[in-house]
Design goal:
mainly beta
C-alpha cells in the first residue's frame, strides 16, 4: 500500500532523473527514480497578418494569427518606424505596431520566432498613395469672372488647379 511521498523528493527541473523516496508504511520505504517525459515544444506557426493596407505616417497595429505563438517574437516591415510588440498576446494571436514611413507602395514584412531568429512567415502590406481634395467655394475675383481653386494632395505633396469662368452675360 502506498502511504505518501517523502519530503526528500528532489526535482532536477527536467535536467536529470528525479530521485524520490516512497513510504510504503511507517517502517518501509523505497527509493525510486522518476524521469519526466516532456514533449518537445511545438513550433510557432503563423497563418495570417492583418491589416494588409496601412496609411503613410499613421501608427498601425498589426495582428498575427496562428498557433503556438509566443511573446518576444520578431516583427519587421520595410520602412515601418518604431516597431514594437503589443503586450497581452495569446498562443493564437500576437500584435505589433509601427508607423509606415518615407514612401508609398508595397512593403515586405517578416514574422520570426524571435528577433533575429527563424523565419516563420513572409508577407507584404500596401501603403497607398491617397488623393485628398478640397475645393474652395466659387468666388468673384472681379466683375464677370468667377474663380474656383481645387486643391488635392497625395501622400507626398499638395497641388492646386485654378479655374476661372466668365458667365455668358459678361462675354
Amino acid at each position: 500500500m502506498f502511504l505518501r511521498w517523502a519530503e526528500d523528493c528532489a526535482s532536477s527541473g527536467g535536467a536529470a532523473p528525479d530521485v524520490c523516496t516512497i513510504r510504503m508504511d511507517q517502517e518501509r520505504s523505497v527509493q525510486a527514480i522518476f524521469e519526466a517525459i516532456v514533449p518537445p515544444p511545438s513550433n510557432p506557426q503563423v497563418n495570417s497578418v492583418s491589416p494588409v493596407t496601412a496609411m503613410l505616417n499613421e501608427l498601425t497595429t498589426f495582428t498575427v494569427n496562428g498557433s503556438n505563438l509566443t511573446s518576444g517574437m520578431g516583427f519587421w516591415i520595410h520602412d515601418c518606424a518604431g516597431i514594437e510588440s503589443v503586450a497581452g498576446g495569446t498562443s493564437t494571436q500576437q500584435q505589433f505596431r509601427c508607423t509606415p514611413s518615407y514612401t508609398v507602395g508595397e512593403k515586405a514584412g517578416v514574422i520570426k520566432d524571435q528577433p533575429g531568429g527563424t523565419l516563420l512567415y513572409p508577407f507584404s502590406i500596401n501603403v497607398p498613395d491617397i488623393v485628398r481634395s478640397v475645393t474652395t467655394t466659387p468666388a468673384t475675383v472681379y466683375p464677370g469672372v468667377i474663380q474656383t481653386v481645387n486643391w488635392f494632395s497625395t501622400n507626398q505633396a499638395w497641388y492646386s488647379s485654378i479655374s476661372m469662368m466668365q458667365p455668358a452675360q459678361y462675354r
